Each structure stands twice: as structure tokens, then as C-alpha cells.
Amino acid sequence: METTATDAATTTTVNGGLHSFKVKPLQLILNRAFALIYLFAILALFYNHSLKLLNSTSFISFFILFLILISDIILAFMWLTIQSFRMCPLTRTEYPEKLKKFSAGKFPALDIFICTADPYKEPPLNVVNTALSVMAYDYPVEKVSVYVSDDGGSELTLFAFMEAAKFAVFWLPFCRENKIIERCPDAYFSANYSENSETQKIKLMYENMKTRIENVVERGKVEEDYINNEEERQAFSKYWIAGFTRHNHPSIIQVLLESGKDRDITGHGMPNLIYLSREKSKNSPHYFKAGALNALLRVSGIMTNAPIILTLDCDMYSNDPSTPKRALCYFLDQTLRPNLAYVQFPQRFHGLNDTDIYGSELKGLFHTNPVGMDGLRGPNYVGTGCFFRRRAFFGNPSLFEKPEIPELFPDHDVKKPIQAQEILQLAHQVSSCNYENESNWGSKMGFRYGSLVEDYYTGYRLQCEGWKSVFCNPERPAFLGDVPISLHDVVSQNKRWSVGLLEVGFSKYSPLTFGVRSMGFVMAHCYAHYAFWPIWSIPISLYAFIPQLTLLNGVPIFPKVSDPWFFLYVFLFLGAYGQDCLVFMSAQGTWKRWWNDQRIWMIRGLTSFLFGTIEYVTKHLGMATQGFSLTSKVVDDDQGKRYHQGIFEFGVVSPMFVMLATAAIINLVAFLKALADIFKGDQSLDGLFIQMFIAGFVVINCLPIYEAMVLRADKGRMPTKVTIISTFLVGILYIAFAFLLRSV
Ligand SMILES: O=c1ccn([C@@H]2O[C@H](COP(=O)(O)OP(=O)(O)O[C@H]3O[C@H](CO)[C@@H](O)[C@H](O)[C@H]3O)[C@@H](O)[C@H]2O)c(=O)[nH]1
Ligand SMILES: [Mn+2]
């Protein structure tokens, strides 16, 4: 190990020179000092709260102060947990070019898993693009196997992949020989590429494939004229048996390309390409994506059993062919983290609008927080763009958890070709829906069941077992995915996450109990921060209504401007927002994006977090719930246009929007009424300043909501029904509070 220090940073190069890491001692000290000061401010706030509670004169004023206290306790808890990410941030660099000294034979084999679940929400053409981008990795081709899991059980997806296998024979050598970096065909043809006869030819082929796939999807089935031979017909006929539905069908496994057998047009080898749609039955739980990944783990175990695995969502295409080599820089180094389970790349997205109106970048979640966790035991797993060591799924680093059959042992050597009768038979067996009955899959082995955020939960449990991870964040994004482009999709996705996170937070594996025991206080609090994300809904909702409803009635609830305690509030507000902004900006952020990021946090608080919490509670009372509702990856033209103009997309009647609109109206009304009262001289600004500031701040954040309610006529406007219901609710709240507060 070699260390060089400059004033601002210490860089350590790890032996072999495959990678280095950097810590900034000054930043570290400042973060900790600030945390300490802020902590004292919070304690002072609670002292002030208790004084006020003790002095309250009526039940209703006691109750209101008590609600504010609860909010502040939760805010303080969330602040405390966020500090875990700020204790030892660490950044890494890797040097894949140095791998040249390793002969290709030394590279470990790589199994790539791509999950898809619905051909209408996840267009097969896009899934195919993702697959092609990784099949073309700059990696010894005979070592790469791409497995597609189709939870939609759809012949459309299989058809798309048959087409992809044919196109790959041209695409792979094209990329290799022209040293193309953009190996996702759609991304390549949408960017500026040099037009010549060769690119024109390949583009024509791509367009041809695209049309065929889109036609088939439009028709909803693979018709005669699209089937080329008996072999293909046999494959499709599996979907045509009576009673076949996506929720009820036998396993379908199709080897579409076989390495060592199939060749590209230059005679060079091809990677394996395998399609899998695991068996489904109404009588067995399938555990959504975690179940799909475990089926992939086993099927790939039988067929190729590569020691390194890459998991990808269907929309996350590769944006850099050197990515597996980057991951190898860490896996090949045994000294730094001998218990290294996974190397996580950040989720990055293409097609964001300029100011990222929905905060889809999720900089905290995907960028700055993982940097913080990397200085501890490593980042959490975010479901896609993550390379795993297969062994990590079979027990902790020192205690191997034996799978049922020896063929699934992570060190088992597959000797037979993937299309051998025995192999295919075994692959069908391990992808059957009863295979996991009474086994350790999902509890001690594989991806873990029990949470809708299987990624977070699996990474967490692996780290509790003693596994470590690394955050790999190269300058050129390694993967690029789709973002939801309507607000309803955004908040629904976050609602699903909220349910999943609470499932972990309140389980026997809660980070606050089990986590602290297994991984230590600071690391466990990183996980606790996420597990309790949804309870942010409590302070956000209370702060969206209580100060405003009291303001409407002219009742002050915070210190006056002339009161010295006022400065505590100023410090707490500026401190929290200032630090958040600083962290955001230091990670290549812009002001506008930060502003939108803090706005979406409030929006989520009133929608996703709140409704997610409610759904979690009803789920645990045994009422029906939604399960894993897929995020749509289809772009409606009009919607896409509005998104790129930075216009919010409402458009649907949803209880979540009612909540949002109600808060927006209340804040505006309260702010204007207080302003009028002050001008008339009925009220003094001194006593109501904090309440007015909060209402005013919310109003500025809500500008797009008012616009959507009154100024817009397009399809994405706030539905009139929502506006009417919300106005009605505002009236009720106003009357109720006027009644409650009449004696205060
Ligand atoms: O029953 C299912 C449901 C989903 N998926 C796949 O899971 C992936 C993620 O689904 P998506 O609808 O895109 O959810 P997001 O909320 O965008 O995904 C984030 O959150 C998920 C957990 O809720 C993680 O699994 C993802 O990796 C993470 O990117 C997609 O490829 C789906 O095809 C399945 O394979 N089977
Ligand atoms: Mn997604």
C-alpha cells in the first residue's frame, strides 16, 4: 500500500495498483464538528419544547405543541441517522488498463441477469437493447452468459430475444472492430455516429429488427408470418397450451445462443444467451423480483455457474464496455476486502430533463450516501448495476450454507454443454415453483424475501453476515436507466419502496436492533435511515397543516422574532438545508436540481411516504395490497414533451394528489390571510413570522401545483375533481380548527 497526502486529501494506492481510494481529512473533521454543534442545537430545541409544554394553558394548545414535538423528534432522528453517511466518506478510482497484464484466461466467468416482467410496461425492444449492450462487453466472450428472466411469461419477449440473437451476430463484431463505446444499439443510433456504408448497413438491420419486434408487440402475439422454422414454432407453442397465463405456466428455458457453438459473422465466438420464464402457479408465492433472481441464480448455477454475477433491471443498459473490468479491479484484489460480496455502480439515468423536476437523479440515495457508506462497510445494494461474488449468496464468509444439490455449489465445475439433456432437465427442475418449498432460499440463501425492496434488504442482510461491498463510480456512467416521467409514476414507485422499507424497519431484522448488533452503530444507522424514510411523512404532513391552520386563526405557536429562541430556529433551518445543499452541490449538482430535489422530498412526504405507511399498516392488518407494481417504461409522446419542457404531469385522479392539492391550497390561503391581517394591523409579524415563513416556503414550492390547478388546459393538468375535493377538504379543516381554537 502506498499513500500520498496533499493538503486536502490523502490518496492510498492499493497493492498491484488496480485501484486507489481517497479520504479528505479536513472534510471529515468539519462534518463531525458540525454534527456536534447541531446536536447541541437540537437538545436546546427539546428543552424549549418541554418548557412550552409545561406552560401550556389549554388542552388544545398542549395537543398542538405535542404534535410539533413529535414532528421534531422524528426530524431529529432522521437527521441523526443521516450523519452516519457523513462520518467517513471515501471515494475510489480503479485502473482497468492495468488488467492487461492478466491473460484473458485468468478472467473469471460472468453471468449477467436481466429481469423483465411485462411486455407492455417494459417494451421488449428496450430489454433487448439492454441485453445487446452487455453481450457486447469488452470481456472474453466465451466467459460471458446473459440470462433473461421473463416474469411476464410472454412469447413477445421471447420473440424479441430470438431477433436479438440474430442481430447480435452482426452487432458484436461491429462494436468490437470499430471500438464503439456506445454498445446499446438504440443509444448508439440516437447519438451522433459517423455515417458510412457500414454504419448504414447495420442501422438498417437494427431498424428491421425494431419494426419486427414492435409489430409483434402491437399484434399481441407471434403470428405465422413471423415464425421462421420448426424449432421456433416449437418454442412458441409452449405459450399456446390451454390455461397458459403469466401467473400460471410451466418453466420455459430457451438457449438462444451457445458460446463455443454459435459464431458471429467474422467467425468469432458469441456469449451464451438464455431465456428463462420460471414456472408460476397460483398456489405458490413467487416473491416478485427476488424470486426471479433466485431462479436465475439456480438456473445459471446449473448451466454456467460463473463466480461473478451482474444483476440488471431491464432498462439499465451498459454505457461503458469496460465496466466488468472495473469491477474486477476490486474482486481480483484479495487484500483490501477479503469478504467483498459486491461492487455497486450508481444508478444513473438518461433522458432527465434539465432541472430534473422530479428529483429522479436521487443523488443522495445513489451517489452521496453510498460514498459515505463506502468508508464503513460499503454501500447498500440498489437492485441493478451490481456485480456479486456468487459465493455471497451461500452463507456468511466463514460458514458455507449448502444448497440442496451439489450442482448448485458455487464452486461446482460445469462440464457439460448448456444444451445437454441432463443440464436442461436440471435447469427446469430448479426453476419450478415448488423447488424452494422448505428450503433456505430467500431466508439464508440467495436474494432475501420479506420486503418489496428486495435489493435494500438483501444487501443489508449480506452486510449483517459480515460481507463487505465497494462503491464504484467512474466518471463515465457505467449504466443508464429510464426514469418515470409522470408525477404519479414517481410517487407510486416511492410508495412501493416505502412499504418495503417499513417491512424491514419493523421486522425482527430491524437495523435498530439486529443491525446494530451485527454491523455496529454507525453502519446500522445508515440502513436505519432508509428503513424509516416513510416516517418522514409524519413531520412533513404535520408541518404542512398545523402551522398554517393555526396561522389562519391567528394563533402563534413558535417563538417571536424578538425572542432569543428565534435564532435557534433560524440556525436549525439554515443548518439542515445548508448542509443538504452543500452535499448536493459538491456532487456535481446545480441549484435548480437541488431546489427540485428538496421539493420532491416534501411531495414524497405527503404522498409516497404517507400512503406507503398506510399501506404497510393495512397490509399488516391482513388487508389486500398491491404487491410489486411495476414502474412503466413506456413514453407517451405528449407526456414526454411536457416532461422535457419541465412541466409537472398530474393527469390522474389519485388520493395522493388530493393530499398534495389540499396542502397547497391551505398554505396559500393561510399565507395570504396572515399577510392581509398584518397589513390591516390585526396581527403582528413578530409573533407569526415563523408560521408565515413556513407557509410562504411551501407556497413557493407549490407553484407548479397552482399552475396545474388553474392555468393549464393540457392532459397533464390537475384533474378538476381533485381540485374540487381538495377545496372542500380545506373548508372542513378550516371550520374544524376555527372551532377547536376558538378559546385559545
Ligand atoms: O415480479 C417482478 C417485478 C419486477 N421485476 C423486475 O424488477 C425490475 C425493477 O422494477 P421497476 O418497476 O423498474 O422498479 P423500480 O422501482 O424502478 O426499481 C428499483 O426498486 C426495486 C425495488 O423495489 C429494485 O428491484 C430495482 O432494482 C430498483 O431499480 C424490473 O426490471 C422488473 O422487470 C421482476 O422481474 N419481477
Ligand atoms: Mn426501474
TrEMBL record:
Its main location: membrane. One of its GO terms (molecular function) is cellulose synthase (UDP-forming) activity. It comes from the Eukaryota. It is a multi-pass membrane protein. GO terms for cellular component: endomembrane system; membrane. The active site is at D151, D455. InterPro entries: Cellulose_synth, Nucleotide-diphossugar_trans. UDP-alpha-D-glucose binds at K121, E122, D151. It is found in: Endomembrane system. Keywords: Cell wall biogenesis/degradation, Glycosyltransferase, Membrane, Transferase, Transmembrane, Transmembrane helix. The chain crosses the membrane at residues 29-47, 59-82, 527-546, 566-585, 650-676, 688-710, 722-741. GO terms for biological process: cell wall organization; cellulose biosynthetic process. Pfam families: Cellulose_synt (PF03552). Mn(2+) binds at K289, D313. This is Cellulose synthase-like protein g3. The lineage of its organism: Eukaryota, Viridiplantae, Streptophyta, Embryophyta, Tracheophyta.
